[in-house]
Amino acid sequence: MAKLDQYREYIQNLLTKYGSYQPSEEDVEIQLIFDTVRDHYQILEIGWDGYDRIYNCVIHLDIKDEKIWIQHNMTDIQIAEDLTEMGVLREDIVLGLQPSYLRQYTQYGLG
């Protein structure tokens, strides 16, 4: 259980840091979504750019079977590297945004 709590803390710290960046559109807000019961974590952009509605999931991470799954990353941030620098084992990080048949060629977990 300690590992799971530590991973939750790592994710929340990272997303809080990433979510502090301000979007270029002034009418767009950044929302941090932390579901610590079901272990879903997201950064959303919500608002308007002129007449265009903005609703984007920028980053989505999950914890499944005590592994951190990177489900979506629309940034140039190397989330997996940041997690390993915090102490997460590479085999405990799954690149869910990659097809399962390609994960064997990464330096991370298979899922």
Describe the structure.
The chain is an alpha+beta fold. It has one domain: TATA-Binding Protein (2-Layer Sandwich). 23% of the residues lie in helices and 36% in strands. It is built from two helices and five strands. It has helices at residues 2-18, 79-86, and strands spanning 28-35, 40-49, 52-64, 67-73, 93-94. It has a five-stranded mixed sheet with strand order 1-2-3-4-5, covered by helices on one side. It starts with a helix and ends in a 17-residue tail after the last strand. The model has no long low-confidence stretch (mean pLDDT 94). It comes from Nostoc punctiforme NIES-2108. This is XisI protein. Pfam families: XisI (PF08869).
CATH class: Alpha Beta
| Average pLDDT | 94
- Taking all Cα atoms into account, the compactness measure Rg is 15 Å
Beta-strand proportion = 35-45%
Q: Strands of the largest sheet, in order across it?
A: 1-2-3-4-5
- Biggest sheet character: 5 strands, mixed
